[in-house]
Each structure stands twice: as C-alpha cells, then as structure tokens.
Amino acid sequence: MTDTTYEPYSQDPGYIEANTSLIGSIDLEGVERVADLACGTGLLSGLLIDRKPTLTIAGIDLDPVQIGIATRTFPGPTVDSLEALEAEAKAGRGAAFFSAGSAMDLPFEDGSIDLVVIGNAIHLMPDRDLFLRNVARVLRPGGQLVFNSVFYVGTYVPGTEPLFTEWMRQAVMVLTEINEERKARGEKPHPRVRGKGDRAFRKDWLSGEGWGEAMKAAGIEVAYMADRPVPISAEGLALVGAYGGLAEVLMSGYPVEVASECLMRAAPIAFENLGIEEVPRNWLEMRGVRV
C-alpha cells in the first residue's frame, strides 16, 4: 500500500539537501525560541536542534499524523505543552513541542519568537498577507522569518517543463489502467468528485520579488533572497507524487490513495520516456527581519 504521508518525501535526498542548505544559512546567534510552522515531519526542527541544542522549538502542523511522526523522530527531547517548552527555555535547555494547529492562528505572545521557519509551505497559506502580519506580530524586533518554496514564479528551470507534462500524462494513463482492471473484476471505476483544488497550484504564485513586497507590507524587511537549483530524480519525483497532500491537488477529486499510486508509478515512466535521469528545479529561499 502506498505511504501517502509526508515522511517518505521528507527523506528524499534532494528535499533534505534543499532544507539543510536553508537551515545552514541562518545566523542563530541570539536565537533561542523558534516556531516551525507547517512543520510536517519536523525535518527543519531536527536540523535546527542539531545546529544549536539549546533551542526551544514549537512545531505546528494541520495534520496530526505528521505531528506524531515529528514527535517520534525528533532528535532531541520533547515536551507536551507550550508551558513546559517555556520552562525549558528559561532553564536554558533545548526541547521541542509539536502540536496540531493552523499556521494562520499562532498561539504565541507578541514579540516572543526569535525565529520563524516554514519549509515549502508558505504558498499554502489561504491569506498570505494575514499570515505575514501574524508572523510579524509574534517575532521580536530583529527576529527572523526564513522560508523556502518550490511553488513560485521561477521554480521551473527553462527546458524542464516537458518532464512535468509527461508525468501528468502518464499518471492519467496509469489511472485508466487501474480503472480497466477494476472493470474486469466487475467493480466500478474510481469516480472523480469535481470542485476540489488547492492554493499551491492556482496561478497566483508570487515571484521572489512579490514575496518581498508582501513581507515589507507586514513589517518584515528582506535580508536575503535566492533561487537554489536542486536536482530531482525519478525516485524523488515518485516520492513527491506519493505524498497525499500533493496527490490530492495534482489529481484533484480522486481518492488520495489512488492519486498517490498513479503519480508514484508514473514518475519513472516519464523519466524513461524522455531519456533523462534527473532535472533541476529551483527552490526559492528567503530570509526577512522584523523591523
């Protein structure tokens, strides 16, 4: 059965490389309290605690399954409440607390956070301006917002578009094959429920400059912005496709397990048909400072 959680994708070498580079670029001097928003399986939190074991990190994600994985795999101590996390901070001991919740509703006092990180998820925020204002509220003056994203204007390296087109074409063909097999067994084809979608794949992606303008409007000045090309292989693309949160967007309306299976099986076929082993895709990296 296809693992549709974020865990396999978070272990992909390309994904780890992109996020390791992001976390490695952060100046952690004076940073003690961290908020890891849309934290998923806690990869960024783990990379941060490895760099500075005295950090206290509050991780928030909508999906309780990912929170469970983050709590289980975090390479440092964990606590069971924000109050306990604050006690660890005051004692100078590093720890993390992971909880299910929305990054749009931050449970932190004004000016109480030194660093906010959000890995490859800022494009999912339903109201980006409100989100950035909330981040600015909880950051202390001089506190940092650091994020990356592959869903922005500039992510596709020129010349790589045919792979992603072929991937989707092959995924539809896999779905057709699955439905034909169901018919042969006397079962109904998987129905599609229309009307579903997700912000990550709407055409209102921002460029890096656009994110900079939105940050500035919220009171966060851009300190760093870059495009980081990271190669993705057939195996990496299959892991991306298997993640249910993405599959339900790319093949909107189909059962998530079916969509994940189609995208996972289609990835190596697309690479083979085009005769390539990997393609680059740009990651936007940004760092801002609360004024």
Keywords:
Methyltransf_11, methyltransferase, demethylrebeccamycin--D-glucose O-methyltransferase activity, 7-stranded mixed β-sheet, alpha/beta, transferase, 291 residues, SAM-dependent_MTases_sf
Structure commentary:
By secondary structure, the protein is α/β, with parallel strands linked by helices. 43% of the residues lie in helices and 21% in strands. A seven-stranded mixed β-sheet has the order 3-2-1-4-5-7-6, sandwiched between helices. The termini are far apart. This is Demethylrebeccamycin-D-glucose O-methyltransferase. It comes from Flavimaricola marinus.
Number of helices: 11
Residues in helices, as a percent range: 40-55%
Q: State the separation between the terminal residues, measured CA to CA.
A: 49 Å
The side-by-side strand order for the widest beta sheet comes to: 3-2-1-4-5-7-6
GO molecular function: demethylrebeccamycin--D-glucose O-methyltransferase activity; S-adenosylmethionine-dependent methyltransferase activity
Enzyme class: transferase
Protein name: Demethylrebeccamycin-D-glucose O-methyltransferase
EC number: 2.1.1.164
